[in-house]
Specification:
Layout: E1 11-24, E2 34-44, E3 49-60, E4 90-107, E5 115-132, E6 153-167, E7 174-188, E8 192-193, E9 198-199, E10 205-222
Antiparallel strand pairs: 1-2, 1-10, 2-3, 3-4, 4-5, 5-6, 6-7, 7-10, 8-9
């Protein structure tokens, strides 16, 4: 439907973004601040409505639980590999999210696409502790054993975003900045927690992220470009 009526749309574009995110609530007990890079596609109709899809890859280095490997490490915190030598094991945050979104645009002028873009999205969020053994032979942290430590969680999510998009009048560049708030209803998908020697709860939790975004906009289509004085 949207493609069939493209001639009535004001614009369509791809975007590429960087997002700095701060965890809130239960999620902050496991992870520190993280970063995300991603892309989206959106279009704006003639009545200033926007529709789109976005996806982001999350990564971070701040894992709050310093005792995660206490039951497989020495009194000094070292993990010994199969060859009897100390190993170098790193833990990081990894995850991704994807959302379908819709919203409304407040333009400051009828002859320019710059303005405040407000949207609400629904989708999916996933996160885990990524355990990097650097190809060392660590039997207590093989691919199957890692699942007892990685806290792999996912679930339904929503995202509210407010962005200011700037369109240069001569079309030289288009950029955007703003903030977003993500709330996800997630569940740990692993059965047993090796770190605490107990089964995970089957209850879901509310994961929250506050993000600050910078974005580059790559326009594909703009209705009546000469009307907007881009060229």
């Amino acid at each position: 439907f949207l493609n069939a009526n493209a001639q009535e749309n004001k614009q369509s574009a791809f975007t590429f973004n960087y997002n700095y995110q701060i965890p809130i609530g239960d999620l902050a007990n496991t992870f520190g601040n993280n970063s995300a890079i991603g892309a989206s596609y959106f279009l704006e109709t003639s009545n200033n409505m926007i529709f789109g899809i976005e996806g982001n890859y999350m990564f971070g280095t701040d894992i709050k639980d310093a005792t995660i490997f206490d039951n497989i490490s020495t009194s000094t915190g070292a993990i010994i590999g199969a060859d009897g030598h100390y190993t170098n094991v790193n833990v990081m945050q990894r995850g991704f999210d994807s959302h379908l979104f819709a919203g409304f645009v407040f333009h400051f002028s009828e002859d320019n696409l710059s303005g405040i873009y407000i949207s609400q999205g629904v989708g999916y969020l996933q996160h885990q502790i990524f355990i990097d053994t650097k190809n060392q032979n660590v039997p207590q942290l093989d691919e199957e054993m890692k699942k007892g430590y990685d806290r792999f969680s996912n679930g339904f999510s929503t995202r509210f975003s407010v962005d200011y998009k700037y369109y240069h009048k001569k079309g030289r560049f288009q950029i955007s900045s703003g903030f977003n708030y993500t709330m996800a209803y997630t569940k740990n998908q692993r059965a047993y927690n090796f770190a605490n020697n107990e089964y995970y709860s089957s209850e879901r939790t509310w994961d929250q992220l506050l993000g600050f975004k910078l974005e580059i906009i790559i326009p594909i289509h703009r209705k009546h470009e000469e009307e907007f004085h881009y060229y």
